[in-house]
Sequence to fold (347 residues):
Amino acid sequence: MLIALLPGDGIGPEVTEQAVRVLDAVTGDALSFERGLVGGAAYKAVGHPLPPETLDLARRADAILFGAVGDPDCDALERHLRPEQAILGLRKELGLFANLRPARLFPELADASALRPEVAARIDLVIVRETNGDVYFGEKGMRTTADGLREGYDIMSYNEAEVARIARVGFETARARRGRLCSVDKANVLETSQLWRDVVIEVSRNYPDVTLNHMYVDNAAMQLVRDPGQFDVIVTGNLFGDILSDQASMCAGSIGMLPSATLNSRSQGLYEPIHGSAPDIAGQGKANPLATILSAAMMLRYSLGKAAEADRIEAAVAAALAAGARSPDLGGRMSTAEMGDAVLAAL
Ligand code: NAI
Ligand code: MG
Fold:
């Protein structure tokens, strides 16, 4: 099975290296990795954040393991050359529209959550975030108003087919879990959200076994901190899902703990930690690789049909945490490689 390995820039190469060590340990030589350049690393080497060879590799691969992109050296570049265009481009070109972001608190990390332990202990949810539409992909630009003021704009839009297909993923995910789906929108002010809500209700008729409720995004942000245990599956758009999943990560101890899968309609998947390239700690061996290692487990489960191997990795992460493995974001002193060692030792 061919894995496109796209480390990216910043801490991306550091965390993916540990994930590859863990994958090699559980799969023997069943996986072959082919490296591709993305993000700032690609821009610096070949002048584009998503070179055609990388896109071709991603299309050919059985699954994609992605690190992170966001090299601040590229901040001054025109938007289409910025590293983030690599992840947006991969999602769009491969039709990767369904981003699944599970958030749960390993009991061993109760002390690391920003919430009181008894509140945090109840978090066990999945955010299903749409990643092919919304304000990220709408028409955008800069113009000058009649009064001579600079004005930036980004158009937010969703059509009903886009909403229906992500809603179905939300309902299917809820059906396979505790049977509860919360659709998050801002229907009190946004037309996009009104359509979102209407279509989610239409799709719900095919899922009588799933309990649906709706929540405005501002309230959802509050409820995630007040009582995260009330959520099973959250389905939402690209922008709201981006923000809510970073927020959920704090309930789960650290942004360095949360994995994600982004799937297309052919069940091809891109697997990556939810965090970015963390330029503030890049190159220092301080990054927590567990989010990427857990993303590799999701890859085995969802794209490669290796659920038993995925279970082994998740159990090894729990065992490493139980044995005291802590990177700085979790209040400890272990390096990125030592965290990888701890997972390998537990395996
Ligand atoms: P970030 O997620 O990179 O970092 C936020 C904070 O969390 C930083 O203090 C960082 O040190 C910490 N952090 C992140 N991952 C960590 C890990 N594994 N272990 C320990 N600490 C960790 O978000 P930020 O700073 O907003 O963005 C940095 C760059 O990354 C930007 O250029 C942004 O556009 C890009 N980005 C890329 C993403 C991707 O590649 N999918 C996703 C999010 C942001
Ligand atoms: Mg984000």
About this structure: Residues 1-106+254-347 form a domain with the Isopropylmalate Dehydrogenase fold (CATH 3.40.718.10). The chain is about 40% helix and 20% strand. The radius of gyration is 20 Å. The chain has a mean pLDDT of 95.
